[in-house]
Amino acid sequence: MPDIGQLAVEKLTTRQAEAELERLAAEIAAHDRRYYQEDAPSVSDAIYDALRKRNEAIERRFPQLIRPDSPSRRVGAAPAQKFAKVRHSVPMLSLGNAFSDDEIAEFVERVRRFLRFTPDQKIVFTAEPKIDGLSCTLRYEQGRLTRGATRGDGMEGEDVTANVRTLADIPKQLRGKAPEVCEVRGEVYMTKSAFLALNERQKAAGKQIFANPRNSAAGSLRQLDPAITAERPLGFFAYSWGETSEMPAQSQSGMVKWFGQRGFKTNPLMKLCSSVEAMLAFHHDIEAQRGTLDYDIDGVVYKVDRLDWQQRLGFKSRDPRWAIAHKFPAEKATTVIKAIDIQVGRTGAITPIARLEPVTVGGVVVSNATLHNEDEIERLGVRVGDTVTVQRAGDVIPQVLGVVADKPRGAKPYRIPKTCPCPLKTAIVREAIAGGEEGARSRCTGEFACPFQRIEHLRHFVSRRAFDIEGLGEKQIALFFEQGWVKEPAEIFTLEQRNSKIRLEEHEGFGETSVRNLFSAINARRKISLERFIYSLGMRHVGETTARELARGYGTWDAFHQACVQIAAGNGETRTEMDNLDQIGDTVIDSIAAYFGEEHNRHIVERLKAQVDILPAERPASDSPVVGKTIVFTGALEKMTRDEAKAMAERLGAHVAGSVSKKTDYVVAGPGAGSKLAKAKGAGVQVLTEDEWFALVGEQR
Ligand code: IVH
Known about the structure:
The chain is α+β, with helices and mostly antiparallel strands and 701 residues long. Helices cover 36% and strands 21% of the residues. It folds into 6 domains: 4-73, Helix Hairpins (Orthogonal Bundle); 97-327, 2-Layer Sandwich (D-amino Acid Aminotransferase, Chain A, domain 1), CATH 3.30.470.30; 331-445, CATH 2.40.50.140; 448-525, DNA polymerase, domain 1, CATH 1.10.150.20; 529-615, 5' to 3' exonuclease, C-terminal subdomain (DNA polymerase, domain 1); 630-697, BRCT domain (Rossmann fold), CATH 3.40.50. The strands form 8 sheets. It has a 5-stranded mixed beta sheet. The protein has a 5-stranded antiparallel beta sheet with strand order 16-15-14-17-18. Residues 75-80 have low confidence and may be disordered. Bound molecules: 2-(butylsulfanyl)adenosine.
């Protein structure tokens, strides 16, 4: 049998071509992964280019065989399908829990007995908040961050190196002198304020709403696309360690201090306690502060301070004998589910909501709780009529924790209806959420036909980050929609004209003045920035940041609009161009293509466009020598941070890309630049040192 890989393209049969395209897709993807994600290419550029050329040649001859995952359809590596597994060289263990003061006294007693200490032997414990996030281990070799992994089952976690690198609290290089190997462990968390803001943004973009800061931290860290993690405000507190080639301190508190000196954030509330009374007072004190802290905690942790004693105490199954978690009682209550309703979001996402017999939880009356999605309902097994436990844990949306046993049960299991509750009764389908482990969700397929989605679109359109029209909030737009006065965004701008018929001022809640003010607020918005305009369309996956990138990338509405229409029509080159923009990938492009692929949407946009003036994106310095150029920064920059470099280039009108491609104009390489530099040289891209870059743009450093 001939080796198909050796056959000339002209000689291939259709079957052989199909097999060969499959092989090439896999091989090129593997090279891309090594090149882009691991920064460790295993073939020369020439071999790599030959593979790509062969792929293209076969595709030219057999266009009907072009694969959806063809290398010609994308630049760089697709995000990993799953995370690689990492075996922890020192297991990541959990903690025993205690709830009562007595249990803490018993814990201290156990420690004393185990160490055969007399009652007057002083034992010092560290006491610190127990952060409600997810634990993570960071491996440093010669002071450089080489790997980040989640805890997983304690023995084996997931490799989230690319993701942890995006966290500002995690140094990529340890400060000062570092041991050869050292693994720093701690908790990744999201602050409560960041969590609320993230949910706002997610909601506005029609994306997943998180139940609490811990879930959102976990969901954000475990993103297959690290660019998404980078957008999420995650923090990290260092409190423990794994494998270390030398111990820089002899006590728990000394180690934590050392982490601080090496550039980590450590929890400022940590204290030393040398008696049970002091430990309980600490617990009490932290519980009182709990509501004022900007991160969720679920208790405190006590640890024997001396490491030689920790060593002697060792572990009992999976928990250390030298530490214990003293948990806080959660803010919970029990009540009855009266009904389960569904809410339809802007993009059709269905969220089941439990309507509850009102109950006070932690001082707040709760009558609704989210059930998130169908999987959650199934997991909890809740039915209408069940008595359930509800929790308000630092988050605003109370959640149902589970069914209370020994109480009368509801009669039948709940199923998400097959049709939308709107009068049109459009179909509801179940679909997987792309890009992560965030489960499946049901979605109404009605799009603009579904009045629920329409109204959500209009709400989004007038929201603060979109058109933000004073006097036209959620309530007013809902009223206008229900009355049939405004069915789509363009109609907001024709309201004034039509008001001789509508006579808004004669409706409750409106007067002459407020109507006049409303029209002038609407008119004031006839000039709108490109980024707001793009964002206001409410395309899935096009949040504020993405809209800004697109606006910057295209500059004008006409350029952007033309690209969208072309991409929707299947133009691969235009697609690649968009893909080359920073932070824009397949998910966003697919969503834009889907949106502009719908004639109905194109008309909506057209009619809206006719009403407004879309201002070109603020084009940074148009006279700079790098306007419109694509720059790649690589290696260790010495005179500026990566973020500074990026901001500077963008200010000067350049695009900054993460990888070298045909479109790259300059590669600015610092010391230690590796494969990107090699690739740039191979491709004949101009390479600059940092100083040459400054000289080029005429700035001094
Ligand atoms: S020490 C061997 N300290 O709690 C002991 N854990 O329930 C290692 N956690 O998996 C853990 N805050 O995710 C420690 N200050 C803290 C903590 C903490 C939160 C988490 C951690 C651990 C879990 C155990």
